Amino acid sequence: MQVTPLIWIITIAVTIAFFVYEFFAHVRKPHEPTIGESARWSAFYIGLALLFGVGIGMVSGWTYGGEYFAGYLTEKVLSVDNLFVFLLLMSAFAVPKAYQQKVLMIGIIIALILRGAFIAVGAGLIENYSWVFYLFGALLLFLAWRQAFGSHDSDPTNNRVMRFIRRHLPVTDEYNRDRLTVKKDGRRFVTPMLLTIIAISLIDVVFAVDSIPAIYGLTSEAYIVFTANAFALMGLRQLYFLIGGLLERLVYLSQGLAVILGFIGIKLVFHALHVNELPFINGGRHVEWIPEIPTWFSLLFIGATIAVAATASLLKTRGDRRKASGAGDAVPVGNARPGTD
Q: What is the pTM of this model?
């Protein structure tokens, strides 16, 4: 795939322009977005991402177009999983809804910057060291196991960084609009708003570690990796307000993500064996009999996994609600009204 420096400059400039517009048009004035506003902008960004993928397919070939769509799907699902953590974090820090947009916007910008750095590092490693595919594959298999069986109950307000800040900086318990610091009695205090942004930044680092190896398992093109990440993050703020209630119903999303990460981890290990140069594996020769998993199969597998996880989640929560409703309507024997059988 031929991507000139000019195309990179234009792509980055347009991405920055979108975020600048988002800030001045929607985030600068604190407010809670309506469902209609969130739905319209979510549809716009998803449509834009799909059109961009069609453009890649028409200009550079559908092999690259398929890699983009597989990468975008994976990054979008990982981003939705990230919204769970954002939701918990906003609740833990009791961020007023009118100010949540600003926190999300800053967090998303930090995420894109971090992922851009990780993309550059990953591209350099892949270009020069084929063994890095083993490392990425092992990392994704570990992350898949942790996603499926690990604990997600850590308190973001009481981790080591938050405790360090509270020990060394004066922190006020009250929000002062969307300000990061406030002056009281001649002394400067840090507000919970700043603590929330720091917590999101730390989470963004963890998300980048999950995200970048996953998409490099689907494509080796840094341009596709960057644009898939940018489009997945662009509509994340609106998606947060649009599906906030639905997130609680996606009870099997973590298991679905674990399957996707595990699949991509295996795909990376297969690719590492196929291009193997490590002397202690097969004498430093390529393992030719190992199959390369095609892009079309990756795309179908990821799409099917997302569909199964979402459908199973909604069926499970609907069944739980029916059971709860039935239990609530039942009249205990000991509390039967006089004169009834």
A: 0.76
Quickly state the pLDDT bin for 247 (edges 50, 70, 90).
Answer: low
Q: In 88-97, which positions are buried (b, 16+ CB within 10 angstroms) versus exposed (e)?
A: bbbeebebee
3-state secondary structure of 260: helix
Q: Which residue has the tokens 């999101």?
A: 200
* The pLDDT of residue 252 is above 60: yes
Has residue 330 got a pLDDT over 60? no
Residue 200 backbone zone (phi > 0: left; psi -120 to 50: alpha; other: beta): alpha
Q: Cα separation of 148 and 331, whole Å?
A: 39
Q: Which two tokens stand for residue 136?
A: 């990425």
Residue 333 phi, psi (nearest 5) = -60, -45
Query: Is pLDDT of 327 > 70?
Result: no
Element containing residue 190 per DSSP (H, E): strand 187-190
